[in-house]
Amino acid sequence: MAAIDSHFKNHIFAVTGSLILLLLIGMIGYEYFAGWNWFDALYMTFISISTVGYQEIAPLNHSGRFFTMFIILAGMIVIAMLSATVTSWFVRNELLLRRKHQKMKKRISNLRDHTILCGAGDTGKTIISEFIRAKAPFVVIEESSQIINDLSEHYPDILIVQGDATKDENLIEANIANASAVIAALSIDADNLFVVVSARALNPQVHIISRAVEPSTEHKLYNAGANFVISPNRVEGIRMASVILRPAVLSFLEVIMNREGLSLRMEELDIPESSPLLDKSLKEVQIPQKTGLIVLAVKHGKDSPWEFNPSSQTVLRKNDRLIVLGETDKIEKLHILLKR
Q1: Which residues on adjacent β-strands are paired with residue 114?
Q2: Chain centroid to CA 289: how far?
Q3: Could you tell me if residue 259 is inside a domain?
Q4: One domain, residues 94 and 118
Q5: Which of 63, 82, 106 is the last residue of a domain?
Q6: CATH number for the domain including 148?
Q7: Counting Cβ atoms within 10 Å, is residue 66 exposed (0-12), middle (13-18) or buried (19+)?
Q8: Contact 322, 295 (CB under 8 A)
C-alpha cells in the first residue's frame, strides 16, 4: 500500500507541475503574442486548457491562434494524464484489496482447531491481545470498518471476516466446521444468543463461550448451546469485593494476569501422545526441578475432575492436562520437556 501511495503521489506531483508550467507558458505567450495583461492572459490560458468554449478575450492574430491550439492540445494531454493517474490508483487499490481478501480467505480455510471471535469491541480487543501473546490461531468476525482498520493497523497478519457474526455465511467463511471454539463477545445479548444458536447448528462439537450483559440471559445462552457463559457485571462485582475482602489474593492474581510487568503466567498444557513423560509419576519427571514451574493441577481425561495440588505419586497418562505456574521462559522449557 505504501508503494502504491508513493507511486500515486509522484504522478500527482508530476501532473500538478505540468499544469502550473502550462499556465505560466500560457500567460507569457499571450502577453507576448497579444499584449494582454497577466490576468487576461491567465484567464485565456485557463479556459483554453479546460476547453469550455468561451470566446476570446480579444481578437487574436494567426500567431495567437496557433499558440491557443498548442495550449488546448497540451491541456488535453495534462488532463488525460491526471485522469489516467487517478483511475490507475483506484484500480490498483481495488486489485490489492481483492488479492489481500482472497489470500486471507485461503489462510482461514486452511485453519484447523482455531477459535472464532465474534465481536472486536473492548472485550474482544483484550481477547485478541491474549491470543496473539499465546500464538494461538483465531479468526475475528467484525462488522465495523473502523474497528477492522484499527486492528489491521496494529496487527497486520490478523485474520478478519467483515460482516455480521449472527449470520451463518460469515461463520462459515470463518471456517467454523474446523474450529475448536467460538467466543461470542458482542455487546447485545440477543446477538450473542443468535451466534450461539448458529454456531451450535453449524458445528455440534465446537466449544462455545458467550458473554452475557444481563445475568438473566445466562440460562438462555446455556439452553441455546453455550458451554460457558461469563457475565461482566458479576466478574466486576466479585473483583471489587475482593479488593476489600481478599486484597493479597487479588494482588497475586493481578501479577499472574498482568500482560505487562512481570512474566509470571498460569498456563494449561496437554501432554502429547508421544511424550516421554507418559506413565511416569510427577516425582519421576521432576517438573519443578527441571523447569522451575509449580504444578497446580492435573486433569486425567476430558471428563475427569481437576486434581488440585497433585501428590508426587500422581502418574501422567495419555490425554492428561497440566496447569502450571511460572515465568514464560520456563513454560517454554516444559513444552520442550513434554516433546523431548
Answers
A1: 179
A2: 40
A3: no
A4: no
A5: 106
A6: 3.40.50.720
A7: exposed
A8: yes
Burial of 204 (0-12, 13-18, 19+ CB in 10 A): exposed
203, 286: one domain: no
pLDDT category of residue 263 using cuts at 50, 70 and 90: low
Does 255 map to a domain?
no
pLDDT of residue 51: 75
Mean pLDDT for the chain overall: 85
Q: What pLDDT is recorded for position 262? A: 52
> Would 235 be classed as within a structural domain?
no
- For the chain, what is the domain count? 3
Minimal CA–CA distance to 311: which of 273, 272, 284?
284
pLDDT-based confidence at residue 2 (cuts at 50, 70, 90): very low
Residue ranges with strand state E in 123-247: 138-142, 160-162, 179-184, 207-211, 228-230
Closest CA to 306 of 292, 293, 320, 286: 320
What separation in angstroms does the CA of 112 have from each of 51, 202, 321? 61, 15, 20
Q: Tens digits of per-residue pLDDT, 70-102?
A: 888 888 888 888 888 778 777 777 777 778 788
Main-chain phi, psi angles of 230, to 5 degrees: -120, 130
Q: Is residue 124 domain-shared with residue 81, that is, in the same domain?
A: no
Cell of 266: 498460569
Per-residue pLDDT of 218-255, as tens digits, reads: 999 999 999 999 988 777 777 788 778 777 776 666 66
Q: Give the domain range for residue 282.
A: 264-339
Domain membership of residue 248 (yes or no) is no
